[in-house]
Structures are given as structure tokens and as C-alpha cells.
Amino acid sequence: MFEQNNPDLPAFLAGIYQHFQFNYPKYYKMDNLSKLGWLAAEILLKDSFKKENYQPEDIGIVLANANSSLDDDIKYWGSVNEGASPSLFVYTLPNIVIGEICIRNNFKGEHAFFIQDTFDAGFIARQVNYLLDKNILKSCICGWVDVLEQDYKAVLFLVEKEKRENSVLFSAENMDNIFNK
What contacts 79, CB < 8 A, 6 or more positions away? Predict the structure, then answer.
């Protein structure tokens, strides 16, 4: 979980990237929302997730936030007077963070991005459980990734249909407990 009010969010995110010694040149072109979500996903998956046990279509992502892509919308609107920036425009959709995670990991399963006033663990749990129960997915990254100026929070969960040793029960209550720590 990443949560903070950081006066230099880009430097903070770059520090995490460098600390974990990630090597993904496309990272530097991403907006802050995508960097935050991408970093959280990389850390979530780095030690114990075995994506080779799944087909790319079996892994999906369900995310939510409160601010959509407002952080980039503000920057894009500010660039309009100087000639609108296509590199900013592409990030004026909140689901781009999902695309960045999927491209990096070759995930091709169902995905969705929801805008909510606050984190609704029950809603997320219902969405993910539906995808798993209907055999649409076998694994899903879900949670919250939000950035607005220097305020941000990322809390991601990895849910696998097949229970593993040491796994935690996937439930709205457990997500809420972790989210609110």
C-alpha cells in the first residue's frame, strides 16, 4: 500500500522504481497515476505470483478511484494554450493504468476501471467474484489507485481462484481492513 501527501510525487515514484531496480524504459513516459499503479502491481507480483501458470486471458484487473484521470486532465487543459500535448492526452482516461500493467505483464483478461467516491470493497469483491465464479478469470488484480496532484493512494490485491498455502481469504471485510490500515 502506498499512501501519502508528497510534495514531490514524481521523485518519490522514481525512488521506488530505482530501489526495486525495475528495468522498464516505458515507465518514464507514464503519467503519475500509471506509474503509481504500475509500481504497486510490480511489487505485488514480484515474489510469489507465477503468471506462467496461467494463460494471458485468465488474468484480469479491476480497479477503482475517486478522481478518475483528473490529475492529467488538469495538466492537459493547462497545455491547450501552448498547443495541446498528445503525450498528455493519452493519459486523460483512467483505465490507461490498467493498459500499462497489462502490456508489461502480457495480461489479456477482462478488466474494468470504476470511479467511486470512496473505496467500496463490497463492490470490488462482487465484481471479482463474478469473474472468478463464471470462469471468466482465474486470477485478478484488484483495488484502488488514485492520484490528484500530490495526494495519492494505491492498495492492490491479488486474487487467485485456486487457493494457495498462506493465502488470505478474499473478502470485502479483509480488503477494508487492509485498505484502512
Answer: 85, 88
Could you tell me which residues come within 8 angstroms of residue 76 by beta carbon, excluding any fewer than 6 positions away? 84, 85, 88, 89, 91, 92
Q: If DSSP codes are grouped into helix, strand and coil, which group holds residue 89?
A: helix
Q: Which helix (H) or strand (E) holds 45?
A: helix 32-45
Q: Decide: pTM greater than 0.70.
A: yes
Q: What is the pLDDT of residues 124-157, one digit of tens each?
A: 999 999 999 999 999 999 999 999 998 999 999 9
CB-side neighbour CA atoms (13 Å) of 162 = 7
Sign of CA dihedral 26, 41, 43, 159: negative
Q: What is the pLDDT of residue 165?
A: 77
